[in-house]
Design a protein that fits this description.
The protein is an alpha/beta fold and 368 residues long. It has 13 helices and eleven strands. The longest helix has 21 residues.
Length: 368
Protein backbone atom coordinates (compact mmCIF):
# COMPACT_ATOMS: atom_id res chain seq x y z
CA UNK A 1 0.00 0.00 0.00
CA UNK A 2 1.29 3.45 -0.90
CA UNK A 3 0.29 7.01 -0.11
CA UNK A 4 0.57 9.65 -2.84
CA UNK A 5 0.94 13.28 -1.86
CA UNK A 6 0.63 15.95 -4.58
CA UNK A 7 3.02 18.90 -4.67
CA UNK A 8 1.60 21.73 -6.74
CA UNK A 9 2.22 25.44 -7.12
CA UNK A 10 1.55 28.08 -9.70
CA UNK A 11 5.22 28.51 -10.55
CA UNK A 12 6.19 24.88 -11.24
CA UNK A 13 4.88 21.71 -12.83
CA UNK A 14 3.03 19.58 -10.28
CA UNK A 15 4.47 16.25 -9.18
CA UNK A 16 3.79 13.52 -6.65
CA UNK A 17 5.58 12.15 -3.62
CA UNK A 18 4.93 8.43 -3.23
CA UNK A 19 5.42 7.00 0.26
CA UNK A 20 5.33 3.26 0.76
CA UNK A 21 7.32 0.05 1.01
CA UNK A 22 9.20 -1.76 -1.72
CA UNK A 23 9.43 1.30 -3.95
CA UNK A 24 13.09 0.75 -4.81
CA UNK A 25 12.09 -2.45 -6.61
CA UNK A 26 9.41 -0.67 -8.66
CA UNK A 27 11.34 2.54 -9.32
CA UNK A 28 11.84 1.59 -12.98
CA UNK A 29 8.15 1.71 -13.81
CA UNK A 30 7.80 5.08 -12.05
CA UNK A 31 10.72 6.56 -13.98
CA UNK A 32 9.67 4.99 -17.30
CA UNK A 33 6.28 6.70 -16.99
CA UNK A 34 8.11 9.99 -17.60
CA UNK A 35 9.13 8.64 -21.05
CA UNK A 36 12.82 9.55 -20.89
CA UNK A 37 15.34 8.55 -23.56
CA UNK A 38 17.42 7.00 -20.78
CA UNK A 39 17.99 7.18 -17.05
CA UNK A 40 21.21 7.68 -15.12
CA UNK A 41 21.69 7.07 -11.40
CA UNK A 42 23.68 9.41 -9.18
CA UNK A 43 24.46 7.91 -5.77
CA UNK A 44 27.14 7.76 -3.12
CA UNK A 45 29.46 4.83 -2.58
CA UNK A 46 27.70 3.60 0.56
CA UNK A 47 24.14 3.72 -0.79
CA UNK A 48 25.13 2.34 -4.18
CA UNK A 49 26.62 -0.74 -2.51
CA UNK A 50 23.33 -1.44 -0.72
CA UNK A 51 20.62 -0.28 -3.14
CA UNK A 52 22.29 0.54 -6.45
CA UNK A 53 21.80 -2.82 -8.15
CA UNK A 54 18.14 -3.03 -7.06
CA UNK A 55 17.31 0.31 -8.68
CA UNK A 56 19.51 -0.32 -11.74
CA UNK A 57 17.81 -3.68 -12.33
CA UNK A 58 14.38 -2.09 -11.93
CA UNK A 59 15.22 0.58 -14.50
CA UNK A 60 16.56 -2.04 -16.90
CA UNK A 61 13.45 -4.19 -16.46
CA UNK A 62 11.38 -1.16 -17.45
CA UNK A 63 13.34 -0.94 -20.69
CA UNK A 64 15.56 1.98 -19.75
CA UNK A 65 19.24 2.10 -20.64
CA UNK A 66 21.01 3.20 -17.51
CA UNK A 67 24.30 3.64 -15.72
CA UNK A 68 25.52 4.90 -12.36
CA UNK A 69 28.04 7.42 -11.08
CA UNK A 70 29.01 7.47 -7.41
CA UNK A 71 30.57 10.11 -5.18
CA UNK A 72 32.13 9.67 -1.73
CA UNK A 73 29.59 9.52 1.10
CA UNK A 74 29.32 12.63 3.26
CA UNK A 75 28.77 16.36 3.15
CA UNK A 76 32.14 16.99 1.51
CA UNK A 77 30.69 15.72 -1.79
CA UNK A 78 28.51 18.83 -2.03
CA UNK A 79 31.40 20.60 -3.74
CA UNK A 80 32.36 22.17 -7.05
CA UNK A 81 34.77 19.28 -7.61
CA UNK A 82 32.10 16.59 -7.33
CA UNK A 83 29.54 18.66 -9.23
CA UNK A 84 31.99 18.94 -12.13
CA UNK A 85 32.72 15.21 -11.96
CA UNK A 86 29.02 14.31 -12.13
CA UNK A 87 28.34 16.71 -15.01
CA UNK A 88 31.34 15.42 -16.92
CA UNK A 89 30.11 11.84 -16.50
CA UNK A 90 26.63 12.77 -17.77
CA UNK A 91 28.23 14.32 -20.84
CA UNK A 92 30.55 11.36 -21.37
CA UNK A 93 27.59 8.97 -21.19
CA UNK A 94 25.82 10.90 -23.94
CA UNK A 95 22.73 11.95 -22.00
CA UNK A 96 20.45 14.35 -23.84
CA UNK A 97 17.74 16.85 -22.89
CA UNK A 98 15.12 14.08 -22.59
CA UNK A 99 17.22 11.97 -20.24
CA UNK A 100 16.44 11.76 -16.54
CA UNK A 101 18.76 11.76 -13.53
CA UNK A 102 17.82 9.44 -10.65
CA UNK A 103 19.11 10.73 -7.32
CA UNK A 104 19.54 7.65 -5.13
CA UNK A 105 20.65 8.47 -1.60
CA UNK A 106 20.35 10.99 1.18
CA UNK A 107 20.23 14.76 1.18
CA UNK A 108 23.80 15.20 -0.08
CA UNK A 109 23.13 13.10 -3.17
CA UNK A 110 19.75 14.72 -3.75
CA UNK A 111 21.22 18.21 -3.55
CA UNK A 112 24.20 17.38 -5.76
CA UNK A 113 22.30 15.35 -8.38
CA UNK A 114 19.47 17.88 -8.45
CA UNK A 115 21.86 20.76 -9.09
CA UNK A 116 23.63 18.75 -11.80
CA UNK A 117 20.24 18.10 -13.44
CA UNK A 118 19.36 21.79 -13.18
CA UNK A 119 22.60 22.76 -14.96
CA UNK A 120 22.91 19.96 -17.52
CA UNK A 121 21.84 21.32 -20.93
CA UNK A 122 20.08 24.14 -19.02
CA UNK A 123 17.92 21.69 -17.09
CA UNK A 124 16.76 18.09 -17.44
CA UNK A 125 14.32 16.02 -15.41
CA UNK A 126 15.30 14.24 -12.23
CA UNK A 127 13.63 11.84 -9.83
CA UNK A 128 14.38 11.79 -6.13
CA UNK A 129 14.74 8.35 -4.52
CA UNK A 130 15.64 9.35 -0.95
CA UNK A 131 17.08 6.59 1.23
CA UNK A 132 17.45 8.50 4.52
CA UNK A 133 14.73 9.78 6.80
CA UNK A 134 16.08 13.33 6.61
CA UNK A 135 15.89 13.28 2.81
CA UNK A 136 12.44 11.68 2.73
CA UNK A 137 10.83 14.28 4.99
CA UNK A 138 12.76 17.35 3.91
CA UNK A 139 15.41 17.74 1.22
CA UNK A 140 13.82 15.56 -1.49
CA UNK A 141 10.66 17.70 -1.59
CA UNK A 142 10.57 21.29 -2.74
CA UNK A 143 13.23 21.65 -5.41
CA UNK A 144 16.10 23.12 -3.42
CA UNK A 145 19.41 21.93 -4.85
CA UNK A 146 22.83 23.19 -3.80
CA UNK A 147 26.46 22.65 -2.96
CA UNK A 148 28.50 24.08 -0.09
CA UNK A 149 31.49 26.41 -0.12
CA UNK A 150 34.05 27.16 2.61
CA UNK A 151 32.02 30.31 3.29
CA UNK A 152 28.83 28.46 4.14
CA UNK A 153 26.32 25.71 3.50
CA UNK A 154 24.04 25.57 0.43
CA UNK A 155 25.16 28.95 -0.89
CA UNK A 156 25.51 27.86 -4.53
CA UNK A 157 22.38 26.28 -5.95
CA UNK A 158 19.14 26.48 -7.88
CA UNK A 159 15.46 25.77 -7.48
CA UNK A 160 14.79 22.72 -9.65
CA UNK A 161 11.75 20.64 -8.78
CA UNK A 162 11.89 16.85 -9.22
CA UNK A 163 9.41 15.11 -11.49
CA UNK A 164 8.67 12.50 -8.84
CA UNK A 165 9.78 11.48 -5.35
CA UNK A 166 9.82 7.84 -4.24
CA UNK A 167 10.15 7.47 -0.46
CA UNK A 168 10.63 3.79 0.39
CA UNK A 169 10.14 3.21 4.12
CA UNK A 170 11.95 -0.14 3.87
CA UNK A 171 15.16 1.68 2.91
CA UNK A 172 15.20 3.26 6.37
CA UNK A 173 15.76 -0.15 7.98
CA UNK A 174 19.33 -0.11 6.67
CA UNK A 175 20.21 3.15 8.44
CA UNK A 176 22.35 3.44 11.57
CA UNK A 177 20.39 4.61 14.61
CA UNK A 178 22.17 7.98 14.58
CA UNK A 179 20.97 8.69 11.03
CA UNK A 180 17.38 7.87 11.97
CA UNK A 181 17.55 10.26 14.92
CA UNK A 182 19.13 12.88 12.69
CA UNK A 183 16.22 12.67 10.27
CA UNK A 184 13.78 12.74 13.16
CA UNK A 185 14.96 16.29 13.88
CA UNK A 186 13.40 17.48 10.62
CA UNK A 187 10.20 15.61 11.48
CA UNK A 188 10.06 17.37 14.85
CA UNK A 189 10.73 20.68 13.09
CA UNK A 190 7.55 20.33 11.03
CA UNK A 191 5.49 19.94 14.19
CA UNK A 192 7.25 22.86 15.85
CA UNK A 193 6.47 25.09 12.87
CA UNK A 194 2.77 24.57 12.40
CA UNK A 195 1.28 21.40 13.96
CA UNK A 196 1.42 21.19 17.74
CA UNK A 197 -0.72 18.03 17.82
CA UNK A 198 1.73 16.29 15.47
CA UNK A 199 4.64 17.39 17.67
CA UNK A 200 2.93 15.97 20.74
CA UNK A 201 2.27 12.67 18.92
CA UNK A 202 5.95 12.53 17.97
CA UNK A 203 6.87 12.89 21.62
CA UNK A 204 4.34 10.26 22.72
CA UNK A 205 3.15 7.22 20.75
CA UNK A 206 5.05 8.33 17.66
CA UNK A 207 8.39 8.41 19.47
CA UNK A 208 8.88 4.79 18.41
CA UNK A 209 9.73 6.17 14.98
CA UNK A 210 12.91 7.74 16.33
CA UNK A 211 13.94 4.22 17.33
CA UNK A 212 13.19 2.79 13.89
CA UNK A 213 9.59 1.52 14.16
CA UNK A 214 8.39 1.26 10.54
CA UNK A 215 4.72 2.08 11.16
CA UNK A 216 5.54 5.22 13.15
CA UNK A 217 8.14 6.21 10.57
CA UNK A 218 5.65 5.87 7.73
CA UNK A 219 3.08 8.05 9.49
CA UNK A 220 5.76 10.61 10.34
CA UNK A 221 7.03 10.74 6.76
CA UNK A 222 3.52 11.15 5.33
CA UNK A 223 2.56 13.99 7.67
CA UNK A 224 5.90 15.74 7.22
CA UNK A 225 5.60 15.61 3.44
CA UNK A 226 2.03 16.89 3.62
CA UNK A 227 3.20 19.90 5.63
CA UNK A 228 6.13 20.61 3.36
CA UNK A 229 4.09 20.14 0.18
CA UNK A 230 1.52 22.68 1.34
CA UNK A 231 4.17 25.25 2.22
CA UNK A 232 6.19 24.74 -0.98
CA UNK A 233 3.01 25.01 -3.05
CA UNK A 234 2.33 28.41 -1.53
CA UNK A 235 5.90 29.73 -1.72
CA UNK A 236 8.35 27.88 -3.97
CA UNK A 237 11.28 30.28 -3.73
CA UNK A 238 11.14 31.23 -0.08
CA UNK A 239 9.74 34.72 -0.54
CA UNK A 240 7.43 34.28 2.43
CA UNK A 241 6.04 31.31 4.34
CA UNK A 242 8.58 28.75 3.09
CA UNK A 243 11.23 30.48 5.19
CA UNK A 244 9.55 28.88 8.22
CA UNK A 245 11.02 25.54 7.12
CA UNK A 246 14.37 26.99 8.16
CA UNK A 247 13.47 26.88 11.84
CA UNK A 248 16.68 25.93 13.64
CA UNK A 249 18.79 26.23 10.50
CA UNK A 250 20.40 29.64 11.02
CA UNK A 251 21.82 28.55 14.38
CA UNK A 252 22.37 25.00 13.10
CA UNK A 253 24.21 25.90 9.90
CA UNK A 254 26.54 28.19 11.87
CA UNK A 255 27.38 25.35 14.23
CA UNK A 256 28.00 22.97 11.31
CA UNK A 257 30.25 25.48 9.55
CA UNK A 258 32.31 26.03 12.70
CA UNK A 259 32.80 22.27 12.83
CA UNK A 260 33.80 22.15 9.14
CA UNK A 261 30.70 20.06 8.39
CA UNK A 262 32.38 17.10 10.09
CA UNK A 263 31.06 14.10 11.98
CA UNK A 264 30.96 15.84 15.36
CA UNK A 265 27.47 17.09 14.56
CA UNK A 266 25.23 15.74 11.80
CA UNK A 267 22.94 18.12 9.91
CA UNK A 268 19.89 16.80 11.74
CA UNK A 269 21.58 17.11 15.12
CA UNK A 270 22.52 20.69 14.26
CA UNK A 271 18.92 21.44 13.27
CA UNK A 272 17.61 19.91 16.51
CA UNK A 273 20.00 22.00 18.59
CA UNK A 274 19.18 25.04 16.46
CA UNK A 275 15.43 24.56 17.03
CA UNK A 276 15.92 24.37 20.79
CA UNK A 277 18.06 27.51 20.64
CA UNK A 278 15.49 29.35 18.51
CA UNK A 279 12.78 28.58 21.08
CA UNK A 280 14.98 29.64 24.00
CA UNK A 281 15.97 32.84 22.20
CA UNK A 282 12.28 33.53 21.51
CA UNK A 283 11.53 33.07 25.21
CA UNK A 284 14.47 35.29 26.18
CA UNK A 285 13.09 38.04 23.94
CA UNK A 286 9.62 37.73 25.46
CA UNK A 287 8.12 36.38 22.24
CA UNK A 288 7.32 32.91 23.55
CA UNK A 289 6.34 31.62 27.01
CA UNK A 290 9.20 29.89 28.80
CA UNK A 291 7.00 26.82 29.20
CA UNK A 292 6.69 26.46 25.42
CA UNK A 293 10.46 26.61 25.01
CA UNK A 294 10.78 23.92 27.68
CA UNK A 295 8.12 21.83 25.88
CA UNK A 296 10.03 22.09 22.60
CA UNK A 297 13.33 21.21 24.24
CA UNK A 298 11.83 18.23 26.08
CA UNK A 299 10.40 16.79 22.86
CA UNK A 300 13.73 17.16 21.06
CA UNK A 301 15.76 15.68 23.91
CA UNK A 302 13.35 12.74 24.24
CA UNK A 303 14.39 11.65 20.75
CA UNK A 304 18.04 11.50 21.86
CA UNK A 305 18.98 14.71 20.06
CA UNK A 306 21.17 17.56 21.37
CA UNK A 307 19.52 20.68 22.75
CA UNK A 308 22.45 22.55 24.35
CA UNK A 309 25.88 23.67 23.18
CA UNK A 310 27.30 21.67 26.08
CA UNK A 311 26.04 18.52 24.31
CA UNK A 312 28.64 19.13 21.58
CA UNK A 313 32.32 18.41 22.14
CA UNK A 314 33.55 21.78 20.91
CA UNK A 315 34.24 25.24 22.31
CA UNK A 316 32.22 27.69 20.23
CA UNK A 317 32.99 31.42 20.03
CA UNK A 318 29.99 33.77 20.00
CA UNK A 319 31.53 36.20 17.51
CA UNK A 320 32.46 33.40 15.11
CA UNK A 321 28.93 31.99 15.23
CA UNK A 322 27.46 35.45 14.72
CA UNK A 323 29.65 36.00 11.65
CA UNK A 324 28.47 32.69 10.23
CA UNK A 325 24.85 33.63 10.88
CA UNK A 326 25.29 37.01 9.16
CA UNK A 327 26.52 35.14 6.07
CA UNK A 328 23.48 32.86 6.00
CA UNK A 329 21.55 33.04 2.73
CA UNK A 330 18.46 34.31 4.57
CA UNK A 331 20.38 37.34 5.81
CA UNK A 332 19.69 40.60 4.00
CA UNK A 333 22.36 43.29 3.81
CA UNK A 334 24.32 41.47 6.49
CA UNK A 335 21.39 41.75 8.91
CA UNK A 336 20.13 38.60 10.59
CA UNK A 337 16.89 36.88 9.68
CA UNK A 338 15.76 34.33 12.26
CA UNK A 339 12.85 31.90 12.38
CA UNK A 340 11.42 32.25 15.87
CA UNK A 341 8.33 31.00 17.67
CA UNK A 342 5.36 32.22 19.68
CA UNK A 343 4.55 28.66 20.76
CA UNK A 344 4.94 25.07 19.66
CA UNK A 345 3.19 24.97 16.28
CA UNK A 346 3.41 28.74 15.75
CA UNK A 347 6.66 29.88 14.09
CA UNK A 348 7.29 33.20 12.36
CA UNK A 349 10.05 35.08 10.53
CA UNK A 350 11.93 37.85 12.34
CA UNK A 351 13.88 40.09 9.97
CA UNK A 352 16.58 42.50 11.14
CA UNK A 353 17.14 40.59 14.36
CA UNK A 354 19.26 42.48 16.90
CA UNK A 355 22.80 41.14 16.49
CA UNK A 356 23.85 42.26 19.95
CA UNK A 357 20.88 40.49 21.50
CA UNK A 358 21.81 37.32 19.60
CA UNK A 359 25.45 37.67 20.69
CA UNK A 360 24.39 38.03 24.34
CA UNK A 361 22.18 34.97 23.96
CA UNK A 362 25.02 32.91 22.47
CA UNK A 363 27.25 33.81 25.41
CA UNK A 364 24.44 32.91 27.80
CA UNK A 365 24.15 29.56 25.96
CA UNK A 366 27.81 28.81 26.64
CA UNK A 367 29.69 30.25 23.66
CA UNK A 368 32.85 32.13 24.63
Amino acid sequence: MTTTIPVAGGAFAPYEVVVGRGLLKTAGAEVAALKPTRAFIVSDETVAAVHGETVRASLAAAGLATGIVTVPAGESSKSFEQLEAVLDRLLAEGLDRRSVVVALGGGVVGDLAGLAAALFMRGIDFVQVPTTLLAQVDSSVGGKTAIDTPRGKNLIGAFHQPRRVLADIEALATLPARQVRSGWAEVLKHGLICDAAFFDWLGGEGAAGARGDADALERAVIRSVEIKAQIVGEDEKEAGRRALLNLGHTFGHALEAELDFGETLTHGEAVALGCAMAFRYSARQGLCPAGEAERAEAGIRAAGLPTRLSDVDHAFAADALLTRMAGDKKAEGGRLTLILARAVGDAFTEKNADAEAVRAFLIEEGAA
